[in-house]
Amino acid sequence: VAGAGGGGCPAGGNDFQWCFSQVKGAIDEDVAEADIISTVEFNYSGDLLATGDKGGRVVIFQREQENKSRPHSRGEYNVYSTFQSHEPEFDYLKSLEIEEKINKIRWLPQQNAAHFLLSTNDKTIKLWKISERDKRAEGYNLKDEDGRLRDPFRVTALRVPILKPMDLMVEASPRRIFANAHTYHINSISVNSDHETYLSADDLRINLWHLEITDRSFNIVDIKPANMEELTEVITAAEFHPHQCNVLVYSSSKGTVRLCDMRSSALCDRHSKFFEEPEDPSSRSFFSEIISSISDVKFSHSGRYMMTRDYLSVKVWDLNMESRPVETHQVHEYLRSKLCSLYENDCIFDKFECCWNGSDSAIMTGSYNNFFRMFDRNARRDVTLEASRENSKPRASLKPRKVCTGGKRKKDEISVDSLDFNKKILHTAWHPLENIIAVAATNNLYIFQDKIN
């Protein structure tokens, strides 16, 4: 793992003056498929950062505490625990291989010294406990020091075992396994604000689980038609409201979002609100339906807004207004003329995620060529930044990038024809309290920050 120190940067989160902090991952040109990062998630405090990869592994990074001898080390994230969450499986009934790839990770709010997270592949969700051990018991009566059982007849005196300090050990243990509830591939998990239940969504159904009960779940949304030939849309993402435990939203491949209230009925087939932007007939093309498919939906921390990401844009919706979004931010409009070649190389089906900053004043999402975009909602400004090792000196400022769409190219601009579509940033995360961001670029995890942390 390569890492570089973090530290002071130019001022101002809203000015989008970010600087490099760290990069984790191998520098090899040939990237193993199993090492490609498939999800990134900060915990509620932001002190832990989890990544999942296509090889079924979960790597957790922990933020370093303040160190007087190294004043800039506070922002550094170092490996805390690595464990194999999922293994490849084979469904013998359907003759299908089940990939080990981690689709989503969601942290549970911390209740005690241990941390808990949910991780899922296509079919199985697991609840993991991550705990520390820095003491061990010694002086057992019925066991030798090497763990072998002693003959009870040889025990002549009663000893009281004592705890002795040992090197810190971080253990990850699976506490619950939630399986056999999804016919199709799981695309989302979301922990409810009651901290007792969570949802899991696949292409056609959403299930509600209790964190303590593994052998049954309740189906709350089912859009599967009686005749599969009549199937017109699939569920692409789902999330619980951050404060109202009865409210959830799910997005579809048709570019619509439905808000459901579990108080109205146990089966939420009839939505309470339906968010859809009318399509402009003049801009309709062969690709309209594909690029309108929503790849991610996220509630704001306040719970007042939600954000949806489609192929070319990010939209912010007010939950009180269903007819149209209150904001539309173009992510890479210059690709509209390239949709034909993006369709041929399958990039048009890429699923980009999006995230809010802690105060809901800015949003971030990924693009191609290892570019990622930030939008300041208050100042109505945006910037394109690049996750690259070429600019990976500690505290090096990130220079805004510009894409030239035609005509004469300026010195700092990059031509739209020279963008690398194999380098894509699908997964990003924003620290819940500070301006620290994590950006997954293939097998590398970049961490940027905007001020001395």
UniProtKB/TrEMBL annotation:
Keywords: Repeat, WD repeat. One of its GO terms (molecular function) is protein phosphatase regulator activity. InterPro entries: PP2A_PR55, PP2A_PR55_CS, WD40/YVTN_repeat-like_dom_sf, WD40_repeat_dom_sf, WD40_rpt. Gene3D superfamilies: YVTN repeat-like/Quinoprotein amine dehydrogenase (2.130.10.10). Transmembrane segments: none annotated. Residues 386-406 are annotated as: Disordered. GO terms for cellular component: protein phosphatase type 2A complex. PROSITE patterns: PR55_1, PR55_2. Belongs to the phosphatase 2A regulatory subunit B family. This is Serine/threonine-protein phosphatase 2A 55 kDa regulatory subunit B. It comes from Microcebus murinus (Gray mouse lemur).
